[in-house]
Amino acid sequence: LRALFNEELGAVVQVRVDDHDAFAAIAEAHGLAAMTRVIARPKAKLGIKLFLGNEAMFKWQWVTLFKAWNETSHAMQRLRDNPLSADAELEWRLDDADPGISPKLTFELARDAAAPFIASGAPRPRVAVLREQGVNGQVEMAAAFTRAGFEAVDVHMSDLASGRVKLADFRGFAACGGFSYGDVLGAGRGWATSILYNEQLRAQFEAFFADPSRFALGVCNGCQMLSQLKDIIPGAQHWPKFLRNASEQYEARVATLEILDSPSLFFKGMTGSRIPVAVAHGEGRVHFPNVCSPSKAHAAVRFVDNRGKPTENYPLNPNGSPGGLAGFTAADGRVTILMPHPERVFRSVQMSWHPEQWGEDSPWMRMFRNARAWCG
Predict the structure, then answer these.
(1) Which of 53, 129, 301, 319 is such that its CA lies 20 to 30 A from the CA of 151?
(2) 274 has which bridge partners?
(3) Active-site residue among 176, 220, 223, 375?
């Protein structure tokens, strides 16, 4: 018991039974044999029994211990956040049958949809990676598009406003995540307003959206911004607004997205896939004004739980959007918006966890390569 209940530095190492002697030999070789103890063996049922010799001194269910451990944190969370969200998270954590992150792919991960077009030797299509003051996601966005075979160009909104750069010079653009104008006018609103009420900028964007050979992607702050440009985006009139998260907090975590059947060029061949993704936003809750029809909004992705079911429950749905909806596309699929950040996890190593068989590229690279294939 003294080895278990002390404040000295130590480590717990789980070793297969068949490897016990080999591990003991390693400890002996490094002079650690006197410091090691066999303290436990794992069981399939979640719970803890504490033995002294062969006598069972205490028995606890895992749920009982977790409630005790989490009691203070949960009480603080109920005071700080939406108490309903705090209770929902506790209920989820107490589900000892939850399978954990459970990806599912409906496409071949190793297949590069853009490879034939890159191999042709044709010039790389140019994509503008848009920035505004407060935007901070431009580097990873540019990296993802570059890896997919594009020439990514850093374009600040002041470049477009001054005429130094023209949107028409690009095959596509990506509006990145961040906090444009500090979100003081509402997330993405200041950025959108700077376009809608500038005659020259509005004309550029209207012409770009109307051209069937162009595409656009909006992520996080870029998603919020483009949703407020929907009146000048053909086929986007039923897109929702994005309001403050139901938890009343900024959420930065991992969630699972399911790819829905939609016309989005980015998600071609990915329908039905469930993929972990980074989430980082404070205003991502979908809200449809009365004049909008959710069925005509062309939903492209939604949050699902670890069993693959669409969810509105926190934290697997981090913002409380109805139906778990997290992204939409215009009617012809050329303009797509989503709140989560696939560009932050386009490499498997960027994920906090992934199946061992996934290679260098995560499944999210497929959407960027789909865009490259669409360009031809």
Answers:
(1) 301
(2) 104, 258
(3) 220
